[in-house]
Amino acid sequence: MTIQEGDFIKLSYTGKLEDGTVFDTTDENIAKENGIYNEKGIYGGDVVVAGAGHTIKGLDEELVGKEEGHSGTVDIPPEKAFGEHDPKLVESHSITKFQDRKAYPGMEAQIDNRKGVVTKVIGRRVRVDFNHPLAGKTVTYDYTIDKKIEDADEKLQGLLALYTGITDMDAKIQDNTAVINIPNELTFNQRWLMVKGRIANDLMEHLGVEEVQYVEKYPPKTIKPEESELEEETTAETEPSGD
Asked: Is pLDDT above 60 for 235?
């Protein structure tokens, strides 16, 4: 079965640098062998939509036209991987930006809501590179298109896992509407607040639902005596007098 743009697929892959260093993989054993294992990571393959930009451009383009079950290797230049290295994104900042932390080369830094890496410390000035860590590098991906996904609920769960890192969320498609119950741990998660709009757009565009509903549930609240009294006073003040 040939993969076309818009198809949901389960994709397994391992990304390597030109020297063979593994920087990303969906294989748990390979991750452990190369010291990049993440206990909170999801292994066993990602669900992506072919041609939708869910992975880097060079790999995304490679998927379209291949057959279900196909395995291959592709070399991807910087412009279709993580971008060229932009000298303008290497900036000098005052060491006061780091407050009580001691800045040193290789240290991850977050300045003005941007993530970067310290490359040099000179006196009270710190040079920070805000390029992607793999910018300017040619990368190689070994990949397998495990299967094409047809089931709507599996597509829904796959996209949610891709964006949130959470599998088996309480979500379903009902009457052409995707109803997603938000886990408490995501309620104030900054990344979630940024991506939930993209998830909704992807679901409407690629899954064909007409509406996406995000539902937040909270456990029943035990009202303290003083809160109860306050509510009673407020109610008494706002109720019609009957005159």
From this structure: no
In the block, which residue shows the tokens 């869910």? 54
At 56-102, the pLDDT tens digits run 999 999 999 999 999 999 999 999 999 999 999 999 999 888 876 78
Query: What is the extent of the structural domain holding 111?
Result: 87-129
58, 113: one domain = no
Element (H, E) at 206: none
pLDDT digits (tens, 9 = 90+) for 186-199: 888 888 988 999 99
- Cβ atoms of 7 and 66 closer than 8 Å: no
At residue 243, the pLDDT reads 43
Q: What is the pTM assigned to this prediction?
A: 0.80
Q: In what order do the strands lie in the sheet with 177-182?
A: 171-174, 177-182, 211-216
- Domains in the chain, number: 3
